[in-house]
Amino acid sequence: MLGEGLFHDVLRQALWIAVIVSVPILASALIMGLAVGLLQALTSIQEMTLTFVPKLVAIVVVFWISMGFMTQTLATFFTTTIVPLIAGGR
């Protein structure tokens, strides 16, 4: 049976990995949103789809670029932490 400390440690690790994996996508959406917002403010163009489409494209591009990193990070966490817990190695 898992101890409470081990449970909290694994949960902390999982949340930290979730943050690390999501930062590239969230950062690209933030940067693209700021750029489009600045462009809209400078040109007085207030089209709703103008904010959505560039952010979506940036998110897809960054996801495609960082997919290997995300997969490797999650697979490493799973094989080094979760699988041994399931198998009873800890």
UniProtKB/TrEMBL annotation:
Swiss-Prot/TrEMBL keywords: Cell membrane, Cell projection, Cilium, Flagellum, Membrane, Transmembrane, Transmembrane helix
GO biological process, one term: protein secretion
Stretches that traverse the bilayer: 14-36, 56-87
Membrane topology: Multi-pass membrane protein
Subcellular location field: Cell membrane
GO annotations of cellular component type: plasma membrane
Pfam families: Bac_export_3 (PF01313)
Main location: membrane
InterPro entries: Bac_export_3 (IPR002191)
PANTHER family assigned: FLAGELLAR BIOSYNTHETIC PROTEIN FLIQ
Family assignment from sequence similarity: Belongs to the FliQ/MopD/SpaQ family.
Name under which the protein is recorded: Flagellar biosynthetic protein FliQ
Organism: Ruegeria marisrubri
